[in-house]
Design a protein that fits this description.
eight-stranded antiparallel beta sheet, mainly beta, 2 helices, single chain, elongated, 13-stranded antiparallel beta sheet, Jelly Rolls
């Protein structure tokens, strides 16, 4: 019988690591209402709250948490959340995660309820589609794209985002400093695919951001307000210039504050044009030679035209008018109420086929047939005025301006005009989950979602944990470990002969012990791990034995 080895060394090629992804389910609960000044914690989570103050959404010193003596922790937490929504101040799409605007909707509104999950309960990430939040009668789910949505909000009549060619919500302005000259949200065109910024920022003047449309009897999000010396200028684009054959819908909320009699222009594509100017500039080169150089610039001018695809104005009777003209024929539709009531009203102009309808607060108030031949121009789109010196300027608020390249149905218009539901914002999304770092943020225009985690709630989710499976091939050469110190295996105490365990006869070399455990040692002979075999393994003298040892960590 061969001499057994005390250790059988493991070669590098016999060692392997294989990562395995598993999902653990967690349930976080808060059954008591919040009280006290420290961060609300329980079951391994932390809650933060922020409210809209002035033109910024921030964690106020009057709100919890206050677990840092100088408030620096609040600042750090808010900066972290802000960066996850808007990594760069002028590029809200360049965020840390979920920047696919086709599927993910991310806006911070009046309030933010932040639930932070520790790393040990987040693992590698939260499993998309596994989040369920119930709180104070609400039931939220996530849609695998980072959106948390309220399942009670009907979305069947909400128009497709792909049909929306332009959108101004003015809801991103709270995060910009008050001293910035243009505190209004950038124009978003086809907001499922790209962001278009106003080219001539200097043409936007004196816009203030104030409380927007009243939703559920509470002011919601933000709106742009015009003082009579204000304007928003957006250069011409084909996306919102509608031909005779095009169907379209233009929807917005307006709050008129008349200061004098006469017409005030609210939305116009008829009076200001942006032109390219070509010329030559003299440039002196290194040899003192004068070289004419081509120069191209933009010139923005007041140049009215009788040809325009749309124009919204408020007449001297404080009624809203929609107009469309090809220079010869003009279609004019009028609203039926006096806007001098200091209330928000919704209007929509809808062209479907040869008919055009004017909706007022979700009801058709007037309609007409298309009479224009080709009402197309290259003029800029301007809000709030007709000229650069503010002729026929508008005083009041403008909110949720949307343009669609199709004629919406009455039920779709009703969702745009529904000021009792988040349908008004064309979404059921009330917040976001950041899967990679385990953060839930509830932030929605509707005030009923404020301080959501301050009350009783339950959060269920699955976290993704990576478990590393190690495996080692243990090679036992034939005859190795085939040894026993038990004296009863010998014929007699003074004999070297072994008793055959089956017949009791002399059978030198016929011993076959059974192993029940495998131990792994380091090079200092220190035991690192022990593996139990599911059944005893017979040691052999005639063949090598290979054992695959696996363990997880």
């Amino acid at each position: 019988m061969s001499i057994p080895h005390v250790f059988a060394p493991v070669k590098p090629q016999d060692f392997n690591i294989r990562p395995v992804t598993v999902h653990k389910k967690y349930v976080l609960q808060q059954s008591d209402l919040y009280s006290g000044s420290l961060p609300l914690t329980g079951s391994g989570y932390t809650i933060w709250e922020g409210l809209y103050i002035g033109e910024k959404l921030k964690i106020s010193s009057s709100l919890y948490p206050t677990n840092s003596y100088d408030g620096s922790l609040k600042h750090i937490v808010w900066k972290s959340i802000d960066a996850r929504y808007y990594r760069f101040p002028n590029d809200p799409l360049a965020t840390f995660e979920h920047s696919n605007t086709r599927f993910t909707r991310k806006f911070l509104n009046y309030s933010a309820s932040i639930l932070a999950i520790p790393y040990l309960k987040t693992g590698t990430s939260i499993l998309p589609g596994s989040v369920e939040i119930t709180a104070s009668g609400f039931n939220f789910l996530d849609d695998k794209n980072g959106n948390i949505y309220d399942i009670s909000i009907a979305t069947g009549s909400i128009p497709s985002k792909t049909d929306c060619v332009a959108y101004w919500g003015f809801n991103d302005s709270f995060r910009k400093a008050k001293n910035l000259p243009h505190t209004f949200e950038n124009t978003v065109l086809n907001y499922d695919s790209f962001q278009f910024e106003v080219q001539d920022q200097s043409a936007a003047k004196n816009i203030t951001i104030q409380e927007g449309v009243v939703l559920n009897n509470t002011a919601s999000a933000c709106a742009a307000f015009f003082s009579g010396q204000s304007m928003i200028f957006t250069p011409h684009r084909d996306e919102f210039t509608f031909l005779k054959a095009d169907d379209f819908t233009i929807s917005f909320w307006v709050k008129h504050q008349p200061t004098a009699s006469g017409t005030s222009v609210l939305i116009s594509k008829s009076d200001i044009i942006q032109k390219q100017v070509y010329g030559y500039l003299d440039k002196i080169n290194q040899n003192d030679l004068v070289v004419p150089t081509m120069h191209v610039s933009w010139s923005t001018e007041y140049e009215p035209t009788p040809i325009y695809p749309y124009r919204f104005e408020v007449n001297s009777s404080n009624r809203l008018l929609f107009k469309r003209s090809d220079g010869k024929d003009i279609l004019s539709l009028s609203g039926s109420i006096n806007l001098n009531d200091n209330k928000w009203h919704h209007y929509a102009a809808v062209k479907s086929g040869s008919s055009i309808y004017l909706y007022q607060d979700s009801i058709i108030v007037q309609s007409g047939s298309e009479v224009t031949y080709n009402p197309v121009n290259g003029h800029a789109l301007v809000f709030g005025t007709k000229t650069f010196d503010y002729q026929d300027s508008f005083v009041g608020g403008l909110d949720e301006v949307r343009m669609y390249n199709k004629g919406l149905t009455t039920s779709q218009i009703q969702t745009l005009a529904n000021s009792s539901s988040m349908q008004m914002y064309q979404t059921a999304v009330v917040g976001n989950v950041f899967y990679k770092n385990g953060t839930f943020v509830i932030s929605a225009p509707d005030a009923k979602y404020n301080k959501l985690f301050s009350n009783t709630f339950t959060v269920k989710y699955r976290s993704t944990h990576t478990i590393y499976e190690y495996e080692t091939l243990v090679r036992i050469k034939k005859g190795s470990f085939n040894l026993s110190q038990n004296p009863t295996i010998l014929k007699s105490p003074n004999s070297d002969l072994i008793i055959d365990d089956a017949t009791g006869s002399l059978a030198n070399g016929s011993l076959f012990p059974y192993a029940t455990s495998v131990g792994l040692y380091n090079d200092k002979a220190e035991l690192l791990a022990v593996a139990k075999l599911n059944q005893p393994l017979m040691m052999r003298d005639d063949v090598d034995i290979n054992i695959l040892v696996k363990w997880n960590s």
